[in-house]
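Thread: FE2/S2 (inorganic) cluster complex, take 2
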Amino acid sequence: MTERGAEHDGTGRVDLSFTVDEAQRTVRVPPGVTVFDAASWNGIAIDSTCGGHGTCHKCKVRVEGSTPITRHDVKTFTREQLDAGWRLACLVNATRDLAVDVPPLTTRPKAATVGVGRQVILRPAIQKRYVELDEATLADQRTDLARLLEAIDDLEPVPDLHVLRRLPTVLRRADFKVTAVVVDEALVDVEPGDTTRTAYGIAFDLGTTTVVATLLDVSTGTPVAVASMLNRQQPFGGDVITRISATMLDPDALGRLRTAACETLAVLAEQVCTEGGVDPAHVYEVALAGNATMTALALGIDPEPLGVAPFVMSTAQPPDLLAADLGLALHPRARVTLFPALGAYVGGDIVAGMLATGMDRDKRTRLFIDVGTNCEIVVSDGDRILSTAAPAGPAFEGGAIRCGMRAADGAVEVVKLGEGVELGVIGDVEPKGLCGSGLVDAVAELVKVGLLDASGRYVADDVAKEIAPSLADRLTYLGQERVFVLHRPTPDAEPEDCVVLSQRDVRELQFAKAAISTGWTLLLEELGLEHRDVQQVLLAGSFGSYLSAASAVRIGLVPKLPVLRIVAAGNVAGEGAKMALLSVRERAGARALLEEVTYVELSDRADFNDLFVDQLSFGG
Ligand code: FES
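Output below.
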């Protein structure tokens, strides 16, 4: 075990080298984080039953070099052990690089796998504690509250009026055998008997299009039920800009948008509780990840400043609130925790996604892309993290595309060109249109066979006949415009009755992909990196999950890398919300990202336009 480094090197991180079962693992964390938290964030298990509160005295580790000795260390270790570097991990602040020996576990902390293969050590904000209290006597006239608080003094909770109103009755009816329910520092309830096995939270991914709710048993980390539905704000417009515009045009729209968001959340909350057979009164906390506009609208905050330059948020970290404030019929004191936002267009959903993918903890150079109407991009070189947003437009969601449609039954999602055209269609039904992944595939395949040139133009008929004779007759005209016929419902159907890809569609996709690739190219440049330095690309969101990595590489949506380095990360915003429910440390990690990530505004960069024009090409 060697001590490495003195004070941290100014990069804003310190390296902790853990040795567990003779295996060594180095993790990088912000200075000041406790050794216990650093381990917990990185899925390294250290004995604990108090979850890092300094009360169980179980988190014993050996730290190389001189480290302050606390009074708890003195109580726990012998003089020889202290001299040898033994300390309680939750009381050691990592202000410099450290080497830490972690002994084998004697109590097994409960952990859950969440996010992109991440292990989260369970330390939810919801804590339930069953206590059997001494009944009051003339000789012991402590107040009901004092009696309860003394029994759970390690949690140091603050009671509220709701609890005080219930306390005398519940205590006496339950023979002073009760369960205290604490969320963060608040004593939110006292329940008769032992209810420690019923502790639930709901993680919401509040998307502009779709909202997903996951009901979690926070004591085990197990998802109990999942439900999703379209955001009821849809009638106000498909994207954030149209919804912001709605509030600017109609003074009543903000209230109606707020109601629509809250109704969506409430319907889903009810649905997951019903499906999971869980009493909503046992849901004590909600974590909500949404972009800055969705969050503002759900809270009833005027979103106009988000939609016009200089694009300013009302706050980066919305305060915690009660679920009842969002109209959710859960436990009456259930809390809502919201993710911070890095900018008007890199919101809490992306912060949640960064948490789920461990963007702040992985030493590799990684590129995170959440493709959508607004595309969020994050690049980390293992040290610095930069983020930006690129306005990609609606092409990936099927908008502004002649035969475009959302990813629903009948949407072409896979296109392969060979001797003929092979289509993958959602629901295995007659093709009706083209969704985002189908659009990317179609263009990539047409570039591959040569029917689209590097500038994105369909080649002339004679060239088409020469290079792809079996496909050339699919290249035709719809009015004045050239189109490629992907699907003919009948052999003699006219182009207007077919699923086609028009020249204008190709242009739309070119603009969208150029906006995105300009974004990540500029961020890489800021870090002094080349495309080939990227070790992993994470494609987030539902679109990212269905996108063909090979097609994304071919059209230049992502850097030209081996496809194995391109990973579909799934619904990372929802995963991040789950992590926040399961671990207060992960939640603190998300909040720390506000300090750690630099937001780069692209629109005022002088070189943006030149690079954008370069990126339009499918060549190179
Ligand atoms: S984790 Fe319990 S004392 Fe450190």
